[in-house]
Amino acid sequence: MSSMADFERSLRGAAPHALVDVVRDHLAACHGATATTLLLADFGLAVLQPVGGTEQRAGSVPLHSSAAGRVFGSQEPRAEPPRDGEVVHHLPVTVRGERLGVLAVRLPVDRSTDAAAGELAHVAEVLGHEMVVAERDTDLYQLARRASRLTLAAEMQWQLLSGRAFSQPEYEIGAHLEPAYAVHGDNFDWSSDSAGLTVAVTDGMGEGVPASLLTTLTVNALRNARRAGVDIADQAALADQAVWAQYRGSLYVSTLLMSFDLDSGRAYAVDAGSPQLWRRRGRSVDRIALDAQFPLGMFEESDYRMQEIDLLPGDRLLVVSDGVYQAVSPDSEPYAPKALVRGIQATSLLPAASAPGALLRELAAYRRTETPDDALVMCLDWHGREGSESRG
């Protein structure tokens, strides 16, 4: 292949399972690469695992204590010191803020130039975008994300998610769930357009598949209402009717809905249950008190009201489920509010994509036991739009 354009055409035309092979052949031909490996982050954000083959776990590396893991966290390409005449380059594979993994490429020392490093970074970016499309038609990349088997309920929940991170000039958003391989009722969802961002955090009653089915119904009812063009109060009302029609109040869903207007810089919320909203502004961390309204599906035809959230550029918003703020230590000390505030402060320098996982690790260390209930953290860093009312 004579040019990057040729490579990109070849990658777009490749079979969904053959993307890494096309990248490997291109880098070997153009840069003398002796090895190329795509490492993807597992569902628990604990390890990076290679794509392809049957020995994926044997080739996994720790996400928090490896050269590839440091690149995943920093999102900056890095080259390891030369060894045996070769240099290993690690490149982040990220799509619109969604951190997928790391591309590891081994080059001869004499081919490891700044120009080569720049092309490798572009290859990793293109690969990420093509992989997101290819995932519709192959399980190859899903398999690489599994350090162990998912429960059926967890499988349903992860397939329901819109993603784990997303970024635009006006905001960055990230979220994570634990226990990653056995989650059942907690879920998060978001959608962006030119005018704003809509976010939903849900927590369905129960355990296992019944809880996942309940959340699946709710998330899809909220999406259906959102795509009809109604505001978040009406989205809540329509989803409430859908859940009531199915369960008649025997099961219901705690939900927090938020919408963000990019032109005005204003934000609104509907609190229909247990997820809590916290804000870090400067050095202070406070819980945002919202008007508590009925969970979705608890009663027939509930009415819901929006309220405005005090939001300024530079604010960090965090939504935590009851599995976070109701957690206790082995000495029965509650995690919220004191330890939760400390955890939010301790993760304040991390980007929105990394903060939820780090906060859940803080929680795990605090409770020193396996998470018995779903625990969800969603983080949104608000930058605002230049010229919006919130910027004056």
From TrEMBL:
<dbReference type="InterPro" id="IPR036457">
    <property type="entry name" value="PPM-type-like_dom_sf"/>
</dbReference>
<keyword id="KW-0378">Hydrolase</keyword>
<feature type="domain" description="PPM-type phosphatase">
    <location>
        <begin position="168"/>
        <end position="382"/>
    </location>
</feature>
<dbReference type="GO" id="GO:0016791">
    <property type="term" value="F:phosphatase activity"/>
</dbReference>
<dbReference type="Pfam" id="PF07228">
    <property type="entry name" value="SpoIIE"/>
</dbReference>
<dbReference type="InterPro" id="IPR052016">
    <property type="entry name" value="Bact_Sigma-Reg"/>
</dbReference>
<protein>
    <submittedName>
        <fullName>Phosphatase</fullName>
    </submittedName>
</protein>
<dbReference type="InterPro" id="IPR001932">
    <property type="entry name" value="PPM-type_phosphatase-like_dom"/>
</dbReference>
